[in-house]
Amino acid sequence: MYWSYKNFVIHQFSELESTNKTAFELASNHTLSDREIILAKKQSAGRGRMSRNWSSPEGNLYFSILLKPQKNLSELNQLSFVGIVALHLAVRNSTMKWPNDLLINQKKVAGLLLESKINQKNCDFVVVGIGVNIASNPSQTIFPASNLHECGIEITPEDLLKKFLDEFENLYQNWLDFGFAKTRRIWMQNAHKLNEEIKCGDDFGVFLGIDEDGNLLLKKDERISKISVADVS
Ligand code: BTN
Q: Which atom number of ligand 1 is nearest to the Cα of residue 130?
């Protein structure tokens, strides 16, 4: 079944392997258009970043948006920040951990996986996949995890998707028209461990935020190094 909300068309499934996988396949066949969304109640093979799996039982939110922005390839990573900042605005009382995690009380409640199809030097399409722990979260995780109910936020997956789309519509349009500045500003204002000592890969340093491309800035011995999203994903 499908339904519309604002400028988005939502294709709803009871179960899929992965909404990112389905969105990618349908977009490759030209049967999914710009701003169409694949939504599933649960996933049997949810994908996380760095080839991890994403635990996806019923009760949480799993969706992927197909986008065809007219932007340079070098700007596409910014879109993952547009997505997580829109989710942050929808959930409130959350912080964001580089590159694309949403935290409440220092625990991960949502993640974002961006996958794109590149043709020659152009972007064919981008799939922005988001998973939010609403009713439950996995217990064995590298970083501590939580869920919205545990944090006192009572909302259904469908209502959260609508709240997200309210925010995403504005922020995405702002990014298309004016670039990364607004998204970057909101991300920085709500960044986890900004100006604190962090460990990134094998490196330690002070986290200075993100640059114009979304790279992480790490200060170590008075030198600032850039760690790109691509380095760790
Ligand atoms: C992460 O590792 O933090 C990113 C997790 C992204 C999970 C979402 S759930 C909906 C979409 N479909 C997938 O297979 N993955 C993303």
A: 8
- The mean pLDDT values, 10 residues at a time, for the chain of 233 residues are 97 98 97 98 97 97 97 94 98 95 98 94 94 97 96 98 98 98 98 94 91 94 86 46
**Residue 65 burial (CB < 10 Å; 0-12/13-18/19+)?**
buried
User: Rounded to the nearest whole angstrom, what is the distance from the C-alpha of residue 117 to the centroid of ligand 1?
Assistant: 17
Cβ-contact 60, 157 below 8 angstroms? yes
Which structure tokens are listed for 67?
């986008």
| Beta strands across the sheet bearing 197-200 | 197-200, 203-210, 216-220, 223-227
Structure tokens at 23: 């969105």
Give the largest CA-CA distance in the chain: 56
Which atom, in ligand 1's list, is nearest to the CA of 52?
2
Identify the residues whose C-beta falls under 6 Å from ligand 1: 18-20, 43, 46-49, 52, 54, 62-64, 101, 111-113, 129-131
The DSSP output letter for 221 is: T
